[in-house]
Amino acid sequence: MNNSDYSYTKTPEELYDLLKSSPSGIEANEADKRLRIYGFNTLKEEERSYFSIFLGQFKSPIVAILIVAAVLSLMMGHRTDSMIIAGILIINSLLGFAQEYRAETSIRALKKLTETHVNVIRRGLEALIPSHEVVLGDVVLLGEGDLVPADIRLIESHGLQADEAILTGESVPSAKEANSILPIEALPYERNNMLFSGTHIIKGTARGIVTAAGENTYLASIARSAKEQSPHSPLTRALAIFSKRLMIVLIGMLFLVGIVGVLQGRSHGEMASILIAELVSAAPEGLPIVVTLILALGAYRLSHHKVLVRHLPSVEALGSASVIATDKTGTITEGFLSVRQTEALDHEELKKCAVLCNDATAERGDAVETALVRWIGEEYISIRNSHPRIFYHPFDPQSRYMATINQNETKERLYIKGAYEALRAMAINPDVELQTLDNAHDVMAHAGLRLLAFGISDDKWEDASAWNIRIVGLIGFADAAKSGVTDAVAQAQEAGIRVVMVTGDNPITARVIAKEVGIWKEGETILNGSEIERMEDAELHTALLGCTVIARALPEHKYRIVKLLQEHGEIVAVTGDGVNDVPALKAADLGIAMGNGSEAAKSTAKMVITDNNLGVIVDAIRQGRIITANLRKVIFYLLATCFDEILLISGAIIMGLPLPIHPTQILWINIVTDGVTDKTFPVCREEGNVMKRFPRRLEKQFFDRWQVARIGWVSVVNASVTLAVFYHMLMEGYSYEIALTVSFCIIVTSQWVNGILAQKEEEPFFYNIRNSITINPAIWIGIGIGLALQAVALYVVPQWFHAVSPDGEMLAWIGAATVLVFILIESYKWLEWGLKKNRKVLNVSSASDRCGHCAG
C-alpha cells in the first residue's frame, strides 16, 4: 500500500478516511496489525554470502587473461611465472571482494538515516516509539532537530523548515506549509506539504500523517537504485574488447601456420612443438601483472592528491572520463551561504536587525542566519547582550517574515526580516528610498542571490497586519564558488571533458554559479527537472548535447542522465555527497564521493576525495590520464613483443625453415625483456600535456588505428630483420646452433630497443633526446638487469638454452641488426609524428577516435 504518490494532492480529511485514521491517531492493536501486514518501517537488505561475493570476482576479462596466462606458464614448466600470476589473481580477487562487500553497506547506511525514536499519537495520547514501528496512518509530532521517520503529509505546521539536501541537493532549507493542496504533477522538491523520510526539521513544529513507510518511501526508491550492479570500469571493458580481437587474430594466425605445416609434411610432434611455441609467444602473461602494478601505483599517487581509491580499476577511469556530472553545493561552491551583496539605507540598524532578528550562532542554526552572524563577526555577541529580546514572532511561510521585539536603549523596537515583497507591503519609506530598494532588489535577484529585506518599527505591534515599518536594507546571499574551480573547469574543457552541473537548486542560482566558473556560456541551454519529466529519451539526449546546467534535478533525473550519456558512448564521472546522489554514483563509470558526504554516498562510490573541490577531481584526472597513457604504452610494448615472436616463427614455417627460436628461449626472452622492462612502465612520467588531449572512444582506448599500425610495424620489423639474418646465416653455411643463437639474441635486443622507444608515444626518440632518456630512468635499470641475465645465459650456461657463446663475428651481426631495427622503428615514428602534425591532431586523438561529444 503506497499512498505517498498522491497524498500531496489530498486534504488531511481525505487522507484520514483513506488511511482509516483520525486526528487521534490509530489504535495500538491496529498498529500491530499493520506491522504484521506491511512490515517494519525499515529498508530491506538483501544479504549476500561471502562466498557468492568472492566467486563474482572471477567474471572479469582481466581475471580470465590471468587464468589463461597462469595455465600456459604452468604447462610449459615455468612455475615462477605461474605462481606470480596466481598471486596477482588472488590479490585482485581479494581487493574486488573487499570493495564489493563494502558497497553492500550502502543500503545499511541508508537505513541508519531513519533509525531514531519518534512521537506519535495513539488513541489520542502521545507516545514515544522506535521509528521502525511507525506505520501507515500514524499521526506524528515533529519539532526542530527531529529526523523525519517516514513520508508524512502535513496536517499542521508552524514556521516549519526542513533540510532536504540529502534528497534534493538543494543548499537551503525548504519551507513547508500544511494548508497547501498541490497538483498531481508536482515534483518532490515542489511538495511543500510533505516531509520525506531521512530529512531533518531545521525550524518550527509540525503534525502529520504517515502516508508511506519502509520500502514505499521516496528514500527507499533511491535505495533500490543503489542495488543495481555498477558498470564495469572502462579499463575492464576496453581490455575485454582488446582480448576478443586478440583471440581472433591469434586463432587466425595459428590456423594458417597449422595448414602450412601440414602441407609441408611436418610431423605431428614437430607441429605440436611449433604451435605450443607460438601459444607461449602469443600469451601476454605480463599484461595483467603490469596493469595491476600501474593501477596500484596510480592509487598510491592519487592518495597524495587527496583522492582515496576504493576500486582499483577505477584509477584508469579517471583518464577515460569524457563527461563530469558534478553537483554544485560543496564541490563547485563552498557549501554554505555567505553575504554576497548589501543595499543599506541605515547600515547600523541593518546590522542590529541582522543580529537581533536571528536565532543562530556562528556555528549553529539556519543557513541564512548563520551567514548573517558570520557577516557581522564577533560584534554580534555584544549587540545581543545590549538588546535583550522581549517578544518573538517565528517565521511563517504564509506571512514570509520573522520578527522580534528587543530593548533598544530606553525604548522597545521591532526588528523584522523576510521576503522583500512582504516587507515592502508594510513599508512607510519615502518613494525615493523604495525606488532605490526596488532597483537593488532586481539587480540582486537577476544575479541569482537569495534575498532578505530588513526593517524596524517603533509603532505599536499588537496587530501584525497594522505594522508600519521602515526598511533599512537588503542583503543578498550566495553559496560562493570555491577558489580554483574556474581554472579546473577550463582545464577539463581544454582536455575535451564536458562538465555538466546537476543540482537541486533553482535555475537562476544554478546559471549564475555555472557562468561564474565557466561551465555555462551564453547560448547554452539549462534544463530543469520538470522539463526532463516530460521528455522521451531521444528528446532528452538531443537536449543534453547543448546543455551544461541541469537545475531542480531529482535523484531519478541524475540517474537517467548518466545512463543516457553512457548509452551514447560517454564515459561518465559523477560527483556527489548526499543520499540523492547514490543512484547516479552507482550507475556512473566512476562515482566520486565527497569526504564529508553521507556514508551512503561514500560506500557506493569508487573513489572518495578528501578535499571537496572540483579542482582536486581535475587534478586526479591528470593523474588518471598519465596512468592510461602508461597502460597504452605497455599494451603496445607487450603486444609488439608477442607478435614479433609469432611472426618470426610463422615466417620461418612458411619459408620451410627450422624454428629460429627454441621454446625454451621464448620463456627466457619473456624474462630478460618483458620480465624486466614492462615492470618499469608504471613509473613513466607524463609525456607532453595529457590535459590537451581529447578522450578516446572506449573501443579505441588501447587499440586504435595508430596503435594497431605501430604494433604491426614494430612486429614486422623485429621479425623480418631477425628472420633475414637467420636465413642468411643458414644459407652461408653457418651451423644451425650459431644461426639460432644470433636470432635468439637479435629478438632480445630488438625488444629492448622497442621498450626504449615505447616510453614516448607522441614523439620520436631524437625529437627531444634529453626527454627521451629521462622520461623513465627505470627502463635503463631494467635493460641493464636483462643484459646481465642474457650474458649469464650465453656465457655461463648456453647449453641450457640451445645456444653457443657468441664470438666477435656473431656479436657484430647482433649489433648491426639491432641498429637497423632502431633506425626502422624511429623512422616510422617520425613519419607518424609528421602525419599527425599535418592533420592537426598532434597530442590529441583523431576525430574518429574521440568519444561521445568530442567526436562531433
TrEMBL record:
Q: What is its EC number?
A: 7.2.2.8
> What is the annotated localization of this protein?
Endomembrane system
| Domain called Cation-transporting P-type ATPase N-terminal: residue spans | 6-78
* Keywords noted in UniProt: ATP-binding, Copper, Copper transport, Ion transport, Membrane, Metal-binding, Nucleotide-binding, Translocase, Transmembrane, Transmembrane helix, Transport
Which reactions is this enzyme annotated as catalysing?
Cu(+)(in) + ATP + H2O = Cu(+)(out) + ADP + phosphate + H(+)
Question: Which is an annotated GO molecular function term of this record?
Answer: ATP hydrolysis activity
Q: Is Nucleotide-binding one of the keywords?
A: yes
Q: What class of enzyme is it?
A: translocase
* Residue ranges of the TM segments: 58-76, 82-98, 246-265, 271-300, 736-757, 778-798, 810-831
Q: How is it placed in the membrane, per its record?
A: Multi-pass membrane protein
The primary site where this protein sits is membrane
Which cellular components does GO assign to this protein?
Answer: endomembrane system; membrane
Top-rank lineage group of the source organism: Bacteria
UniProt-listed InterPro entries: ATPase_P-typ_cation-transptr_C, ATPase_P-typ_cation-transptr_N, ATPase_P-typ_cyto_dom_N, ATPase_P-typ_P_site, ATPase_P-typ_TM_dom_sf, ATPase_P-typ_transduc_dom_A_sf, ATPase_P-type_domA, HAD-like_sf
PANTHER family tied to this protein: CALCIUM-TRANSPORTING ATPASE
NCBIfam families documented for this protein: ATPase_P-type
What's the protein called, per UniProt? Answer: P-type Cu(+) transporter
User: Which source organism does the UniProt entry give?
Assistant: Sulfuricurvum kujiense (strain ATCC BAA-921 / DSM 16994 / JCM 11577 / YK-1)
